[in-house]
Specification:
mainly beta; SH3 type barrels; 5-stranded antiparallel sheet; 5 strands
Length: about 90
Amino acid sequence: MSLSPNADRRRERVFVETDRHRITGEVTLPAEGYQSRFSDAINRDDLAFLPLTDVEIAPIDGGEPARREFVVVGKAHVRLAHPVDAGA
């Protein structure tokens, strides 16, 4: 029996805000151990972008939110980022 390539990964729902957008999506992280926290992913100096799946992008100044399967967010544009509480 072989394990799937994602067996050692997990998805975490996160919120990211830029100057122009509020973005909610899922980031893929290691299941445990080294770099398994969202803060590890956002603070990695070797990566300039944060890949997200199952994404909703809402303009800060109003307007209709857009849904996308996949986006990458330039970390230099991130003003606020945090995990989304599943119980909220």
